[in-house]
Amino acid sequence: MSGTDNREIRSSVFADLFGDDEVDGKRNFLSLYNAIHGTSLVYEETRIERKTIPQSVYKTFRNDVSMLIDGRLIVFVEHQSTLNENMPLRFLEYFVHILYGMVPARARYKRSLVKIPSPEFYVFYNGSETSPSEDELRLSDAFLVPQEEPFCELRVRFENISGKEGGSVKGKLPIRENCGILREYC
């Protein structure tokens, strides 16, 4: 099996565990959400809606997992087994496409402000390359002309969930340790 095939399988398993299944995926995602935010939301009391990118005949975009939690937050999560500094650009694309599916075209041209959920972006890295245990990737790092205070910014929280940093296994990782299904996945 090639490295690309293996990456696709791991990404697919991640998406299945945390999003594709109607009930278990949402329960697992809520567990991950609670681990990220240090909360203890309960599945039966929390409105969770899977958000997918509307597909068209000529374009197919697919991110791993996006959820709307209690109508107030979209969380975009990607599993990566290879390091990719272009994730902020990809997340920007995902976010815009999901908004197109959520906000009616006519509403975008009204005078009154259209409210949208606050996005959060996460990459969970589970590969063998040397990487920090956590980092922040910024869209502005890709700008041809750097700006001291970027007019447009998108930040992605990078978490190394493999437990390996610089080739050595580190101590307990909070997100992995606080989310049983993620720990099992790793």
How would you concisely characterize the structure shown here?
32% of the residues lie in helices and 21% in strands. The protein is α/β, with parallel strands linked by helices and 186 residues long.
Strands in their spatial order, largest beta sheet: 1-2-3-4-6-5
Strand composition percent: 15-25%
Q: Mean pLDDT, as a whole number?
A: 83
Q: What is the assembly state of the chains in this entry?
A: single chain
- Overall number of strands: 8
Tally of individual domains: 1
Task: Return residue spans where pLDDT drops below 50 for at least 5 consecutive residues.
Answer: none
Instruction: Output the radius of gyration.
Output: 17 Å
Largest beta-sheet characterization:
6 strands, mixed
**Structural class assignment:** alpha/beta
Task: Give the topology.
Blueprint: H1 3-20, H2 24-37, E1 48-50, E2 65-69, E3 73-80, H3 87-102, E4 118-125, E5 134-138, E6 155-160, E7 164-165, E8 168-169, H4 174-178, H5 180-185
Parallel strand pairs: 3-4, 4-6
Antiparallel strand pairs: 1-2, 2-3, 5-6, 7-8
Helix pairs in contact: 1-2
